[in-house]
Structure formats: C-alpha cells, structure tokens
Amino acid sequence: MSLRAGIRPEVERMPESGIVEVANYGRGRDGLIPLWIGEGHRPTPAFIAEAASRALAAGETFYTWQRGIPELREAIARYTGRLFGRAFDPERFYVTVGGMHALQMAMRIVSGPGDEVIVPTPAWPNFEAAVGVNGARAVALPMIPGPDGWVLDLGRLEAAITPRTRALVINSPSNPTGWTASRDDLVRILHLARRHGLWIVADEIYQRFVWDPGLGAETGRTPSFHDVMEEDERILFLQTFSKNWAMTGWRIGWLEAPPELGPVIENLVQYTTSGVPAFLQRAAVVALEEGEGLVEEHIALARHNRQIVCEGLRATNVVELPSPPGAFYAFFGVDGVSDTRRLALDLIDHANVGLAPGTAFGAGGAAYLRLCFLRDTAVLEEAIGRLAAALPRLASRRAA
Asked: Rounded distance, CA 373 to CA 301, Å?
C-alpha cells in the first residue's frame, strides 16, 4: 500500500501550485526574465539588513515573545496609525512568519471541517489552499470581468452564503486582478457579514499600491475596513513586510485581530512556529521606522511601469487589459486563448519571459496571464518587447 494512502485527505487534495509549476519549468534558463512571482527586483536595502546583523552580533538568537517583541508591535501600531490618522493599540498586532502564516492562523480561527469560506476569484491560490488544508471548503465566487476591470457582485456574494458559511475573504487591492473595493463596497460587505454573523479575513497587503483617484490614489492608500468598522468587529487583517520593504525572503508579517483573541493567537503561534526570530524582528522595526522613502520609491516605480506594461501589451492587438486600479499586476487575456497554462510554458520557450498562468488563480482565471510589474523598468521594457513579438504568433497558433 502506498504511504500516501495513509495521510489526511485534506492534505492529499492540496493542488499543485500552477505558479510554481511554471517557475520550475523556466528557472535557471539563461537570460529569462521572471515576472511570475509577486515581488520586486531589489534586494533588501542595507539599512534593514544591517539591523538584523547587529541583533545577531548582540546575541539575539534565543526564543522570544510569542506575539512578537514589544518594540515591533509598537512600531506596527505607529505605522498603522500613520496610515489611518489615529492611534492603534499594539495589542491588536501579532508578528507572524510572513503573510502566509497570518493567513493560516486566521483560517484556523474562523473555520474547520464542514465549514465554508467564500473566496472571490480569480484569487491568490493560497487562500483556497489555506481553507482546504484546514478541513473547510473554499467556495469560489467568480468576479465579473469587464472593459473597465473586474467587478465583485455583492448580490451574488450574499447568495453564496449558506448555513455552513463562516467567513469571507476580501483581498483589496486584489492579487491578481487589481480589483479594489470602494468605501461603499466595504460598508456593504461589512453589513452583510454582520447580518450573517460571519468573519472577514481582510488581505489589504497591497493597500499602498493604488492608481485610481476615486479609490484613494490621492491619499496614498486604498479604502480599508478600518475606515468603516467598529473597534471590535469580526475582522482579521493580514499584512506582510514582503512587498513594501523588499523583504519577501525574510518571511515576516503580522496578523491584526481584536485584543480579546490575544491568548488564542499566542497559543497558535506557540504551536506552529514558537515565534519569529528576534533578529528578523529588529530589522522589521527599522523597516517601519526608516523605510517610508523605500516604500514611496516602490510605489513610484510601479506607477511608472503600469503605464509601460498596459500600453505595450495593448499595442500587440491581441491582448485585453483594463488598467488595474490597484496592486502591481497586469492580468490580461489573449485573443483565442482559453487555457493559459500551455501558453505560459510556450512563452518561456519562445520569448524567455516567465508569467503566471491564470489557471493558477481559480474560477474565472483560466483565460488570463499575470505579469508582475514591480520590476526594473529597463528589464520590463525588454520583456514587453519579447512578449509583443511572441504573443501574436502564439495566439494565432493556439486559435488554429
């Protein structure tokens, strides 16, 4: 008998990541331009890395606070306060091993076997996986694509709620579509969750990357549940240091939750990771306190590159791409292509450019490709040139 026959079915059913499949296919190829992963091209700046080195040299290599060192939780509270113009209690914040750990803990808090969690799709595939590995069922709610971008139909959202529904995942701005909730959207979603007694798992990781003036570009952040909620709502916020501060490989983030859940979350940390290394947390404090200029540079780069990508891909005359209102991804369709897994592999072979296939992002995503544009501009321009040469040819071949 196979050893796999004896493992838990929810683990056995975990899907292979379509992004990882394509990345593994192209990784290591000479001259390949990788735009498949959601990260920038810059390594972590020295002023952040040196803080970790100092902490290591000082001997901060022991077990530490399960909730995070007080200095980091206070720094997170101050950073959040600067974004929203009011004070936040440090007791709301819990340091995690990246945003994925925050997501895993959130799902363990709100769902389990027999429960349902609604996930608007196309969506970051880790949402569905985090729900499923916990024994619950992710209910895909396909969003509606249109000439002006993607739309979340709130009527369909309410219709998807059943007696088994325990939570809604709201990712705004969205990875991969760039959909960004308006303040009115958030009010209506919150009222819906209150009426049905549901939790909201709010991924607002890309909230600083907003391009539409009507959705917060003039304020430097998108609308947030923080703008419309009461103090102790059933909302869990996911955050990470990965995107804003060029720290994807550090694996450090935070979960924000009502202080009443503190003992529960502390136990979850204890029984999953026993805490984030203290020297990493020292670097995170410096990122928050000294890194605003770095964040602004990333935002300016993404804003500039968004225009290059949208104009360059549309000029191929085979691409459908509404300008994303938020985040730093182009999620685009190609004429005549309904399954982009094969197309993504072909683009590695024929253009030496790596994109994420929309098949990785769940219901409604199969006809799209995702391109991360938080990259060096010159390299991105080279990638667009290669795609412009390859896409019309590959699209006509696939259509034939």
From this structure: 9
